[in-house]
Amino acid sequence: MNGKVFGALLLRDAIVARREIVALLVRTAFQPVLLVVVFGYVLPSMGMIPRGYATTMVPGVAALCLSMASLMSVAMPLVVDFGFTKEIEDRLLAPIATDLIAVEKVIVGALQGFVSAAIVLPLSYLVSGRAAGLSLSHPLLLIVVMLLTGAAFSSFGLWLGTVMQAQQMQVIISVIFVPMIMFGCVYYPWSGLEHLPVLKYAVLINPVVYASEGLRASLTPAVPHMPLVAIFGALLVSLAVLLSLGLRSFRKKAIT
Amino acid sequence: MRTEIHISGLRKVYGQVTALDGLDLDIGEGELFGLLGPNGAGKTTTIGILTTRVLATSGTAVVAGRDVGKDPVGARRMIGVVPQRPNPDRSLLVGENLVFHATYFGIPRAEASRRTDALLEQLGLTDKKKAKADALSGGQQQRLMIARALIHEPRVLFLDEPTVGLDPQARLALWDVLRELHGQGRTIVMTTHYMEEADQLCDRVAIVDRGKLLALDTPSELKAKAPGETIIEVTLDRPLPDEPLSLAGVTRTEVRGPVVRAFAERAAAAVPSLLSFAESRGYAVKDIHLSKPSLETLFISLTGRKLA
Lengths: 256, 308
Ligand SMILES: Nc1ncnc2c1ncn2[C@@H]1O[C@H](COP(=O)(O)OP(=O)(O)OP(=O)(O)O)[C@@H](O)[C@H]1O
Ligand SMILES: [Mg+2]
Hints:
The complex is a heterodimer of chains A (256) and B (308).
Chain A: H1 2-19, H2 21-28, H3 30-45, H4 53-81, H5 89-92, H6 98-127, H7 139-163, H8 169-182, H9 197-202, H10 207-219, H11 228-254
Helix pairs in contact in A: 1-6, 2-4, 3-4, 3-6, 4-6, 4-7, 4-10, 6-7, 6-11, 7-10, 7-11, 10-11
Chain B: E1 3-14, E2 17-28, E3 32-36, H1 43-50, E4 58-63, E5 66-67, H2 72-78, E6 79-82, H3 94-104, H4 109-122, H5 138-150, E7 156-160, H6 168-183, E8 187-192, H7 195-201, E9 204-209, E10 212-217, H8 219-225, E11 230-236, E12 252-256, E13 259-264, H9 267-281, E14 285-291, H10 295-303
Parallel strand pairs in B: 3-8, 3-9, 6-7, 7-8
Antiparallel strand pairs in B: 1-2, 1-4, 4-5, 9-10, 11-13, 11-14, 12-13
Helix pairs in contact in B: 3-4
């Protein structure tokens, strides 16, 4: 019975997501691809940065897209669902444990992030003139890292979507997301922070770091990256912490 | 009659506000039960607890044999809910709202579509099947909520002010739907602000205020209990000092600001003495309203308030 209900909830979200795929891509994939155009094509053509920079940047940008798409695709609908209209109620009345309704959202969010990144990645690769050194030799590792990252960030979205209000969105983006992106090893590898030891260890609280390094480890295994054990360990810890925070606030919102 | 809903010692506290203050109530299987009470009485809170959406502070509630606190999933399987404010899934079309809700209850898609068409027809929404939920008027959304609550054929149906916002024709149509469901032996709990609705539809009515049960009986028994007096409500142009007045033909009075509520055996005798009282004190009479002994006068005498 639970499986059937869970499947029906998944199907509902999948159908809604499919209808809104263009909006999701515009929101989450457009900017990363333009970033790659500028930093992977325009600036290198002007000789302002070396061509090889794309090798560093493309995995980082894909990680950025993956994490933000996973987060937003859970947080945004939740803010509306729990907002004035309380339209999530028809699902909260479904005969299934409230936690499973939240877990279902996390799964769909992770998949949406996966799709976004799977579109950004090849586009970035082409735009940057087939960024040297990028390889698909570890497809399984890539998929697992992407799904794990997606799950961690959609759990983050579950939490944000149930604690914040729609009006707070803008503030949260500038105060939380912008620093997370800038200090998330998106535009530079973690190993490059060797000369800035304070920063090198301070950024470790930022889960975006593990997303970026995880994609580097999968796409450019030859380039120095954080050890896989650390990446997986940190992503799993992030997932556990964010999911339990998210579930707790979801429950609080769902049942008063 | 078997008990379908059992509520005992139910309390709900929101911070400083005690929404439910030790409610005890048993509702029988197949009953069409009305909850009547002024704004803030605790009706929605009661329905919220019974439908697993609100956690009781203390006390127990059992619906169709499932304790809503201990087995919420089991309870949800038994119930359909029409909320006070329509909350359709705005990401889905009208028809999809129903089909999906049915599938959340494990009903196969083909059967869900068949029931969707039947319910849309029954509630006069067939031509809106492919409309966005947002594009429906308030009353149409309300009807969609009723269809949604019925699609999985629940054993117990909860409706929180289901006829608010419906035009008279839609209201009567809903009454027919409810009578039909009642005829099928389903248990129905509804809240309402309309005395007439409670009187005409319900087997039994509970009057609640401030989270407490004030009266519980069949509409005709309740009417028999109503004070055998007519209530005359006179609204003056400015507040009166709050003290009992002794007037010819009036049993007793209550003063609330500019409103004097007089209880009288014979209105014909009381009205002139009320008017001359006002005139002698230099008040102007803005409005005068008579309520014959009825559910309404009982309600007023119990809660001190009129229904909104
Ligand atoms: N989520 C909440 N947080 C705080 N107080 C609440 C909450 N929900 C209800 N209350 C309070 O509990 C009391 C009972 O509210 P409830 O909604 O149950 O009344 P009601 O009988 O349904 O009224 P109405 O006829 O206006 O719908 C009110 O005083 C209300 O302010
Ligand atoms: Mg209410």
